[in-house]
Amino acid sequence: MRLRALGLPAVVMIAAACGTTTPTPTPAATATQAGPSAAPASASAAAGPLEIRGGDLAPGTYTHSGFEPRITFNVEEGWQGVQNASGFFDVQQDPDTPDVIAVQFGNVDAVFGEDGSAIEIDEAADATPIIRGNPGLTVLGESPSQMSGLDGFTIEVENAAEGDVPVVQVPAGPLAISPERRLWVSFFDTPNGVLAVMVGGSVARWDESLAAAEPVLESVRIGDVAP
Length: 227
Hints:
By secondary structure, the chain is mainly β.
């Protein structure tokens, strides 16, 4: 999936993580570490995808056995497994810094709209019109998207408030975007409900975030859908 092919501005970047970095669960629903740090495992294509875990990830293909629909994707050097909560997980570069880059996957229960309240959705098409009305967000663009043979709906937003602004609700809780962060999120209909695939990064270094996330997104396979 090529982000620029979907019409994203060259300088757009995603926000993620609580506090000052990428979109992640708010403190009330902070995600836990995916596991203790360990030496990178060797990635063998013949052995099938590796299980995502906390800490540095060796280059290779990964999956998360506890997440549905099944997601597989490739990473190169520099990525870490960081957050793993109910219906949500991610990989990051430069975690715990203002410029953290995150590629995130979430089962969407609701999105946040006009009055800042969570509105439940049943279809991917319902998400972007609701988010568009969120007063705490500046919408930078909307476009159709396609990933792993699925058609979806993409919206890019930036925090327009002084504090964290919730955008998406997953089973673990709300995912909020922090000041000076941007979020690119695509919504897809799957047999397991609405799936959000997100990229987060700082406004200041969006080009770098986009360049780092793009190869991961291009490798994503969702469920049993053929590439």
